[in-house]
């Protein structure tokens, strides 16, 4: 951490923030607190400007080319399961999906849109090693093929792709943030919406949640939700989670049967 002491000075107390990369730190000096990270994505500046993540305080480039970013270190907590139904969550996710600034930045960074046809090829390859052990998998793939012509390939937005409740943070000042953007992609917003609704919001509450989001819960959106949710389940298949994923696929098939196909 000598490089951080060189940047901040001896008056700062620095501690690792954990994580896999070991590139994040907390720093404190009196009442001042910072969250520091090496080589954060340039996307962080836009997220900060949009109020999606805690404020970016400064950015410094090191002689070796590394970029150090400092954000406000806020006291707060992750949301609970029940809080994910809050209209504030829907409104913030809608703001993210409708942000042209965030979309333009990811495109300038070279991110390519996730197209359904390309994803379908990935799903076929992934499923090939599991179909003989998962009877429901063949039926799910057939549904995905049926829905494919209705999947828009130009409905583009910045999607977080890891809408876990622990990635939603509420500060001590009651400010809501969505953090941990390492999995962000340009894709159909239904991918984020579907994961959140199916994991956290009881089915009778979906329409009200979508009203807060600002879009109607029509059948076209439902088909897109189930398409991306099926894709997510298939891509997460492993030898050690077969039983659980089999139940998830069976449940998804039951829900899809309620739609006219």
From TrEMBL:
Pfam families: APH (PF01636). Coiled coil: none annotated. GO terms for molecular function: kinase activity. This is Thiamine kinase. The lineage of its organism: Bacteria, Bacillati, Bacillota, Bacilli, Bacillales. It comes from the Bacteria. Residues 17-214 form the Aminoglycoside phosphotransferase domain. Keywords: Kinase, Transferase. It comes from Terribacillus halophilus. InterPro entries: Aminoglycoside_PTrfase, CcrZ_PhaseVar_Mediator, Kinase-like_dom_sf.
